[in-house]
Prior knowledge:
Blueprint: E1 2-18, E2 21-35, E3 38-44, H1 54-62, H2 70-76, H3 81-98, H4 102-105, E4 118-120, H5 125-134, E5 140-144, H6 151-160, E6 165-169, H7 176-188, E7 191-195, E8 215-217, E9 236-239, H8 241-244, H9 247-259, E10 263-266, H10 273-282, E11 288-289, E12 307-308, E13 311-312
Parallel strand pairs: 4-5, 5-6, 6-7, 7-8, 8-9, 9-10, 10-11
Antiparallel strand pairs: 1-2, 2-3, 12-13
Helix pairs in contact: 1-3, 5-6, 9-10
Amino acid sequence: MELTVTRDVFRLAQVFTISRGSRTEAQVLTVRISQNGVTGWGECVPYARYDETLDSVTAEIEGLPAEFDREALYDLLPAGAARNAVDSALWDLEAKQAGVRAWDLAGLDVPGPEVTAYTLSLDKPEKMRAQAAKHAHRPLLKIKLGTPDDMPRLEAVRAGAPKSKIIVDANEGWSADIYADLAPHLVRLGVALVEQPLPAAEDDALLGMERPVPVCADESCHDRASLPGLKGKYDVVNIKLDKTGGLTEALALRQAARAEGYAIMVGCMIGSSLAMAPAVLVAQGAMVTDLDGPLLLAEDREEPLTFDEAGVHPPSAALWG
């Protein structure tokens, strides 16, 4: 088995800003695993919030032994970006070797398109209103917030897209007091979901707090080991393959979370269609699908995912799986 890891850069269509900073490009790692003339591939996005860098994740991947399988991978790498890229590449490799689609290997139904959120980057209220108006035809908009001065932004987006369903992502940017003050206004403006309102290390403040809008755990939820710490705080979990460490754990987390009564959101980092492809399988039947990474890019893989009025479609065999 031959494994290679390379760095790829995709330009963004415009500057993308969240409460932790801005970016103009997506820097990703692409893993290829070849065996007996067949090659599978996967992509990950190292994330500084989790102390990951391109160098550190590359070192994790290059430190793997010469031979392993998906089961062994669990003991070789922790949940995170490195394991995601390798796990995704192994699924692709196995599907190609077996001559079937990845969802067949996983015992899943044939996937269909899922309506995806489109993310509006954090900006001044008037610019966010213009962004919202430009994308008001989309059924689901996600707003990046996370500052003490978010009410004007929220009002502006609702004015720009009066008919779109709205979800809000604070990216850990609010305090408990700010969230409590904003909560009634989220209801008034028809917000359907709020993601990670408080820092993960401070989310005990959600215990006993009224949740008039469903609250989703993002930074507080990585894999199945996260679930005990979410009880009484959250209604929804955001499953991202770069957090779970790949499709294998993402599917297991989805099953375990549903069994404990959580609704499912499937999200992404900003990456190419290759990164989103396995996540489309996890997103089937989710409360919220947020796989808009490729829509934020100025360039993509050669066989990109299809996005249309029905949503994001499953990957072609030429792309992945």
